[in-house]
Amino acid sequence: MSDQLQELLQRIHNDGVKKAQDEAQEILEAAETQANDLIDKAQAEAEQIIANARRTADDLHKNTDSDIKLGAQHTMSVIKHKITEVLLNTAIEQPVKESFQAQSFLRDLILEVVKAWHSSSDSIRLILPEQLQNKLDDLLRQSIPDALSRQIKVEFSPQMKDGFAIVPQDGTYKLSFTDADFVNLFRSYLRPRTAKLLFKDE
Predict the structure, then answer these.
(1) Whether 113 and 96 share a structural domain
(2) CA-CA distance, 100 to 78, in Å (whole number)?
(3) What mean pLDDT value characterizes the chain?
(4) Could you read off the pLDDT of 140-164 as tens digits, one per residue?
(5) Cα–Cα nearest to 126, from 134, 137, 135
(6) Could you give the 3-state DSSP secondary structure of residue 1?
(7) Which of 27, 64, 170, 178 is the most buried (most CB within 10 A)?
(8) Which of 184, 194, 187 is nearest to 80 (CA)?
C-alpha cells in the first residue's frame, strides 16, 4: 500500500513537473517567436527609415544642385547685364549728355527737325528749357528761315530740363527730343548687339 501511494505521488509529481516544463517551453518558444517578430519588424522599420532617409538625401542633393545651378545662372545673367550697362553708360550716356549741353548741337538738331516738318502745313510749338532762353532765342530766330518761322511758335518752359519738344498747335501729341530720349533710343538699339559682342562664345 505504501509503495503504491509512493508510486502514485511520484507519478503526480512527474506529471506536474513535465506539465510545468512543457508550459515553460511553450512560453519560451512563444516569447522567442514574439521577440523574433519584434526584431524582424524593427529591422524592417529601420530599413524603411534608412531608405526614406536616403531618398530624402538624394532629393535634397538634386534640389541643392538645381538651386545652385539656377543661382549661378542668375548671377551670371546679372553680371553680364551690369557689364553691358557699364559699357553702354561709358559709350552712350556721357557723350549724349555732353552733346546736348553744346548749344551748336542743340541748334542744329532743332533746325533738322524743323526742316523735316516743313513738308507739313501744320503750325507747331517748339518748347525749350527756360534756362536756355537768353542763349538760344536769338540764335534760333536767326537760323530758322522766314518761311518756317511763321509756322513755329517758340516757347520756354521750366518743366524742360534739356533738349526740346515739338507739339502741334492742336496739342494732339508731343515729340520729345531730350538727352534721356536719345540715350534710351541708343540703348535699346545697342544693348543686344553689345551683349552679343561681349558674350559671343556663349
Answers:
(1) no
(2) 31
(3) 77
(4) 666 665 545 557 788 888 888 888 8
(5) 137
(6) coil
(7) 178
(8) 194
**Same-domain pairing of 108 and 97:** no
DSSP state of 132: G
pLDDT, one tens digit per residue, over 64-119 is 777 788 877 888 888 878 887 887 777 788 888 888 888 778 888 888 887 777 65
Query: Is the same domain home to 188 and 107?
Result: yes
* Domain around 108: 103-198
Q: Of 77, 101, 125, which one is at a domain's C-terminal end?
A: 101
What are the helix (H) ranges across the chain?
2-88, 94-101, 103-117, 133-143, 146-149, 179-198
Last residue of one domain, picked from the residues 101, 127, 147: 101
Q: Going by DSSP bridges, is the β-strand pair 124-129/152-157 parallel, antiparallel, or unpaired?
A: parallel
Indicate the number of domains in the chain: 2
pTM: 0.53
Q: DSSP labels for 133-180?
A: HHHHHHHHHHHS-HHHHTTEEEEEETT--SSEEEEETT-S--EEE-HH
